[in-house]
Amino acid sequence: MNNPKSETTEKRKMNFLTIALFGIPMGIIFAFIAAISSGDIVLGIITGAIAGPLAGLLFNFILNIFGKSQAKKFHEIRDEIAKEYDILHDGEANHLVNKEGVGGWLFLTSSGLLFKSHIYNFQVHELWIPYETVQSLSTFKNLGFIENGLLLERKDGTQNKFVVYGAKDWVAKIAEMLN
Fold it and tell me: What is the pLDDT of residues 15-53, one digit of tens each?
């Protein structure tokens, strides 16, 4: 059920989106600064058109390096977790808590979901969700248009939202465990 090709395509789309969502505003800022400082609007537009995409590429590059370093750390932690739990699937995730996307790693185990945040968050935490506490499960559109969200509604009424690669695959795998 794990589809690495689909996950790779999703990561490429997210890379492009990151470059655009960072590069466009930065291009506008660079254009404005260059136009004001030089008094030349054309120079400002050219500067923004070049510097914006470069800033987006640089930002995306830095995020990817950070992501790879965190993946390496969580693979080491994975070995420790595997001593206690049977890990069926795992991957990068953001746990949405109080308007913060807390970055970390989500583990699908034979008895529940385990989220462990990395230390570079304001809300560093660990979350254990036993399957018997899950009421419903679905995907959602993050930012209103990116379908990479995983929503778990629990029997006590709380909701846990995660942003993951391959949200539909995560839902299918968790649904298997719930049945």
Answer: 888 888 899 999 999 999 999 999 999 999 999 999 999
CB 173 within 8 A of CB 126: no
Give me the amino acid identity at 33: I
Q: Are 122 and 136 in contact (CB under 8 A)?
A: no
Q: Do residues 41 and 120 share a domain?
A: no
- 168 lies in the same domain as 89: yes
Q: How far apart, in whole angstroms, are the C-alpha atoms of residue 18 and residue 7?
A: 16
Beta-carbon contacts of residue 30 (< 8 Å; ≥ 6 apart): 47, 48, 51, 52, 55
For residue 179, give both structure tokens: 């049945």
Cα–Cα distance for residue pair 83/72, rounded to 1 Å: 18
